[in-house]
Specification:
Blueprint lengths: L19 E2 L2 E2 L20 H28 L4 E3 L7 E3 L2 H41 L13 H51 L6 H28 L8 E3 L1 H19 L2 E7 L4 E3 L1 H17 L6 E9 L2 E8 L6 H4 L18 H11 L3 E7 L3 E9 L5
Parallel strand pairs: 6-8
Antiparallel strand pairs: 1-2, 3-4, 5-7, 8-9, 9-11, 10-11
Helix pairs in contact: 1-2, 2-3, 3-4, 4-8, 5-6, 6-8
Length: 387
């Protein structure tokens, strides 16, 4: 936890930034640019200016009422004399304006209290929004005031929490991509420099290793593109009537040589799964990834079963293996980007892509595993495309 989120003495973080306590600026925040003066010459604090404007508006209204009542009272009482009749007096409008003025003053005071109770929390949100615009996504506001203002503060806090999480994920993604690209680039660079210096012979074996390194980088970039478009919701699906039985049989047939080589029994089991409206190439990509992982991590003599069946208005696919299983702490992050085991040779994007492709179809994916007994990954695809 950084300094912005800690309170004094290691306690819970107080609301409000540590560089502004009790209305005073105690120093620049950690995110403030070093080449700009502190405190800012203008623009902050907007909260007090907002409350001051409301106060001046109310004071001006009250003064206007007082001035109008004084001018009205200047007319005084009017006397009317009619021939043959008694003298009559008409009261000045100020006679009736006195109680009205009291009502206006009391109403103005109540309105001031209500506005003050509403304006202060709104001013806090405005001030916090300026800090978020400057790049401080750890900003939070204290929900207070009326129910509506509290909901505004809660929504603002949720927005900043998501922004902070997205920023952390973006930095983690950049770090992971740089790490994944560093190894093949180092291999290519080292071999090319050795060939130029004459240390490494320029033969087909060396060129083949360079080609493999470039192919690894190409696959990584293609996986990143697929993942980013799927997560952004802009991945185009070419939907058509898709037969689950044919899809499962094709996958089992394609991985049969690899399973035989590793001594793993690979079988298909399809039970009454009707056609569904889906992109067969993307579903095949999901099944390829799941079956490849299952065969890779199942020991000799184990088995992998690819299943498909109907459940209500969905078709369920499952890949079950009798491999080593997945630890509970790893299972919680199984479908995250670059999540992989220590002995994995892949990019760690396969399951993240599988989840994104399933969700693009309007489905869900989940995993169940017990260390030492195997893993079952199930995903659900609607029969009809969601509107």
């Amino acid at each position: 936890m950084d300094e912005r989120s800690q309170g004094r003495g290691g306690g819970p973080p107080p609301y409000g930034p540590p560089w502004r306590r009790h209305g005073r600026w105690s120093g620049p925040p950690p995110w403030w640019p070093q080449n700009e003066p502190w405190p800012p010459a203008e623009g902050w604090p907007v909260g007090r200016r907002f409350v001051r404007r409301i106060a001046l508006l109310l004071i001006g209204f009250i003064l206007l009422v007082i001035v109008l009542s004084s001018l009205w009272n200047a007319f005084g009482t009017r006397t009317f004399r009619n021939p043959g009749m008694m003298t009559t007096h008409a009261y000045s409008p100020a006679f009736f304006l006195g109680p009205l003025l009291v009502i206006v003053l009391v109403g103005g005071y109540i309105a001031w209290r209500v506005l003050r109770r509403t304006a202060a929390p709104v001013a806090d949100v405005m001030e916090a929004a300026d800090r978020v615009a400057a790049g401080d996504y750890a900003t939070r506001v204290d929900p207070r005031g009326s129910d509506e203002v509290r909901r505004l503060a809660d929504s603002f806090n949720e927005m900043t929490r998501r922004l902070e999480l997205n920023e952390e994920q973006r930095r983690a993604l950049l770090a992971d991509v740089a790490h994944e690209l560093r190894t093949p680039l180092s291999v290519v660079r080292g071999n090319v420099e050795g060939m130029i210096d004459g240390v490494i012979p320029r033969d087909d074996e060396r060129l083949a290793s360079l080609l493999a390194a470039t192919q690894r980088m190409t696959r990584l970039l293609e996986d990143l593109q697929t993942l980013s478009t799927a997560q952004a919701g802009v991945l185009r699906l070419h939907r058509e009537p898709t037969d689950p039985r044919r899809l499962v049989d094709d996958v089992v047939r394609a991985f049969a040589p690899l399973a035989d080589e590793r001594g793993v029994r690979l079988a298909a089991q399809v039970d009454g799964a009707p056609e569904l409206d889906a992109d067969p190439l993307r579903l095949r990509q999901v099944l390829d990834n799941l079956v490849a992982n299952a065969v890779r991590y199942t020991p000799q003599g184990g088995s992998v079963t690819v299943q498909a069946w109907r459940a209500a208005d969905d078709v369920l696919f499952a890949v079950a293996d009798t491999g080593r299983g997945i630890a509970p702490d790893e299972l919680a992050h199984l479908f995250e980007r670059f999540s992989k085991s220590a002995d994995s040779k892949g990019s760690g994007l396969g399951l993240a892509i599988a989840r994104s492709l399933v969700e693009s179809h309007g489905g869900t994916i989940a995993a169940q595993s017990e260390p030492g007994r195997g893993t079952v990954i199930t995903f659900r695809i609607p029969l009809q495309a969601p509107r």
